[in-house]
Amino acid sequence: MTELRGADYWRQILEGTRYAVDHPQMLEMGIGTRGLGSALIKGTRFCIFASLAWRAIELIFKSDYDLVDFLGDITMDAAKAVVASVIIGLIAGVLTLGSLPVVVIVGFVIIAGIVLNIGLNKLDDHLLLSVSLKQKLRDALAEYQRITDWNVRYSKPLYNYSLGNGY
Predict the structure, then answer these.
(1) Rounded CA gap, 113 and 115, in Å?
(2) For the packed helices 67-97 and 32-61, what is the interaxial angle rounded to 10 degrees?
(3) pLDDT tens track of the chain, all 167 residues?
């Protein structure tokens, strides 16, 4: 149960003084721990969609950027966004339980997000995770093409289901 006292500016948005923690208005405003979780999910979803839009623009306008690069980058961007949101959620949860002011919590969350983004990108560059993922995708596509070619050459035409895949 969330109780709001002494804040007249809340009356413009909220009508009551007591709300359950899962009340839609509490979740929408990001008040309480469930509101924090809801805001994290919305933020992560936005980051993934923004990354998807950015990578789509790269796919359209870059000449040396192919579908494997697009799929690999989207996958790694989504993984980084999820890892960062979990860590930020833990940090914000601990700060919320410590009853720190909202401005301090927001400041820590923004700083943690920037530091995590830089750190995860450096870790990716150091361990070559994106490069490895893209290479494995290229190898898998080449193997799929080799299997399909073999099926076209050596299978009976009646049992060859891969004829609709570009042949």
Answers:
(1) 6
(2) 160
(3) 555 555 555 555 555 555 555 556 555 555 556 667 777 888 899 999 999 999 999 999 999 999 999 999 999 999 999 999 999 989 888 887 777 777 788 888 889 999 999 999 999 999 999 999 999 999 999 999 999 888 888 877 666 565 555 54
Domain identity same for 98 and 43: yes
Helix %, strand %, coil % of the chain (to 5)? 80, 0, 20
Q: Is 138 helix (H, G, I), strand (E, B) or coil?
A: helix
Task: Specify the pTM.
Answer: 0.72
Residue range(s) defining the domain that contains residue 66: 31-145
Q: Is residue 162 part of a domain?
A: no
**Shared domain check, 90 and 49:** yes
Q: Is residue 155 part of a domain?
A: no
Contact 108, 95 (CB under 8 A): yes
Do both 56 and 137 map to the same domain?
A: yes
Left (φ > 0), alpha (ψ -120 to 50) or beta: where does 65 sit?
A: beta
